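The records we work with from here on pair a chain with its fold. These numbers are not coordinates but entries in a learned vocabulary of local backbone shapes. To see the layout at work, look at the sequence and tokens printed below:
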Amino acid sequence: YYQQAHILAFLCQCVVTHHPGSATSNMSSPIAQDNCSCDKITSRQFVHYSEELSSLRHAAYEALSHISQHCNDATKITLAEHSGLLESLRDTLILKNQTPPTTPQSSKQHLTYILPSHYQAATILSHISTVPHNHKRIVDCHALAEALAMVAMASMDEETTYCVCRTFTNLTFESVEMRDRLFRTAGVVDALLLVMMTRRENTHCHSGNCGGGERRLMACSALANLTISYDNIVPLFEYPGFLDAILSVMREDMQEKDNYYDQKIRSKLCGILWSLAAETKNQTSMIERGDILPILKHLIQNT
């Protein structure tokens, strides 16, 4: 255990010390050690050093991703409590929107190291968020939830988006407080709705997942969790575009060839409608819309 704890601490420190924008990242820089002034640092030196840090950071992220997937809850708690780790994961998620290097060599390195680290950061969060003890710490981390929402809306990678939605599903699974806070976090609901509504035809299509079914199902699960909180039911019903998005997906699924994910998504969406209808303040408006009952009738007759 002593050796394992030190390995874990070393990997976390690699991520924290060398994450982009870290105040400590330049302390170990060979450029800083040589006391070189900024005007003497060539672009070639900067690119070379940046690539070294990217490589080290990616290796640490990959190891932590594997550990977080297979470790016990105590180790996941240790990861979440490591000073600066959550902030480093947040900064890596945000990094994707920064301008990539412009030189051909550095551009290749950027794709090799930065983007996989971006995916690994989302993966680590999806794993450590399975422990309820970590939920408050993750949500308390400044701008981390907003960064996850931003990635969900911008990422074209199925696995990264799935990990983000899984993190939101985990965080909203037990605690009413976490559901309420995430519902009120800017971008979270919009991001989940966008993922739920976005179908993509993948080049490498696995059975039943050609439209990103696993990713969309996880987004539906997070949205369904948000509706469990009593304080969220009316605000969600009144949330601009929320009910329209739910009904739009249900209509589309009626026209799609039925598969495993379509069935699961339909079940989640029906659960959301049930939660909304359980609040008496919503019932009259739901009936007066005129488009909910026909969809439910169609499902009853064709299921």
Q: What stands out?
A: Residues 21-49, 97-114, 203-209 have pLDDT under 50 and may be disordered.
